[in-house]
Amino acid sequence: MNEIRIRGTGYPLVRNIGFTHTQEGWTHPDRLLDYHVFIYVIHGQMQVVEDGTEYILREGDALFLKRGIHHWGGAGTLPGTSTFWIHFYDSHPTSEDLMEAGIGDLENWLMSPSYTVFMPEHYDFTLELPKRTQVRNLPYMYRKIKELYDAYSSSRYYNHLHITMGTMDIFLDMLRASRETPTGSKSDLLIRRLIRHLEENCTEELETDRIAGQFQLNYRYISTMFKARVGTSIFKYHERLRIHHAAELLKNTLLNISEVSDRVGFKSPYYFSRVFKKVMGEAPSEYIRNIYRN
After folding, report:
1. What is the mean pLDDT of residues 151-159?
2. Residue 182: what pLDDT?
3. CA–CA dist 258, 232 (Å, integer)
4. pLDDT single digits (tens) 208-230
5. Is pLDDT above 60 for 124?
6. Between the CA of residue 25 and those of 57, 72, 85, 173, what are the distances in Å?
7. Coil/strand/helix, residue 47
8. DSSP code of 3?
């Protein structure tokens, strides 16, 4: 509820950054803002209520509050609580525009960690920030926060750009932390398992019967759900994984095109070249000419 989405082609535009150390009787401000708020509790306990939903934040907890939504606090914040906060604007003129782009995919799974070559279309999506998450590696996060605040407090050319990129880095850490303990519907968990399976078998041909057997579901049902949640078919997703793996082999080894084709499970190097060009925008031979090959 009231999640914040930002474009993959943009950044959270930082307004200001700060720390708060609460005294006896301190309550979170009662306000309605035209910018978003990120809160991270370093020590203690903070209470925030957003649009009637109460959040009790303790050490390591992070929360995003959405612009245009009334939020306030009560007596639930303990004296001596230390928090770090960031106020930021959308990277696009309106939240409505953001919500129209990229909806219908499962956390933009097209950005698989197995991808190593990024095309312009890979940035055309919206990133949904976790409403609330818990960071386990507290020293690491505190170090990141201190580095960002030091940058905010410094004076150098284009400082706001350094701060914005550092903020994006922290937000991505929050997103990763929220995925350490996967939650969601059964269909979301199934898609995550299937994506992991595709990544682990990206050098083999796609076997629909094997997938249906492993997940004990009708393949047509799995395929329909995958496309609705991820935005592309299982076949195209797997095909892209194989080609990206092939591109890495071409870049980091002295294998020729036929050998790479065989390594990633293509029976014909001619068919491999055709698929490679469709995915990468250039033939394997052109790709080799255009990169710094080991």
Report:
1. 88
2. 54
3. 28
4. 999 999 899 999 999 998 988 88
5. yes
6. 17, 14, 20, 32
7. strand
8. -
Contacts by 113-119 with C-beta closer than 8 Å and gap 24+?
Answer: 113/199, 114/199, 114/202, 114/241, 114/244, 114/245, 115/240, 115/241, 115/244, 116/244, 116/247, 116/248, 117/244, 117/247, 117/280, 119/280, 119/281
Instruction: Encode pLDDT of 78-115 as tens digits.
Output: 999 999 999 999 875 444 444 444 444 444 444 455 55
The angle subtended at Cα 85 by Cα 157 and Cα 20, nearest 5°, is: 110
Where do we find the tokens 């047509």? Answer: 220
Q: Counting runs of H as helices and runs of E as strands, what totals does the chain give?
A: 10, 10
Q: Order of strands across the sheet with 82-89?
A: 13-21, 82-89, 36-43, 61-65, 132-134
Token digits for 223? 């395929």
What does the alpha-carbon distance between residue 8 and residue 29 come to, in Å, rounded to a whole number? Answer: 31
Residue written as token pair 């197995």 = 114
Average pLDDT over residues 33-48: 96
CB 66 within 8 A of CB 2: yes
Following DSSP, what letter does each residue of 5-46 receive, concatenated? EEETTS--EEEEEEEEE--TT-----B--SSEEEEEEEESEE
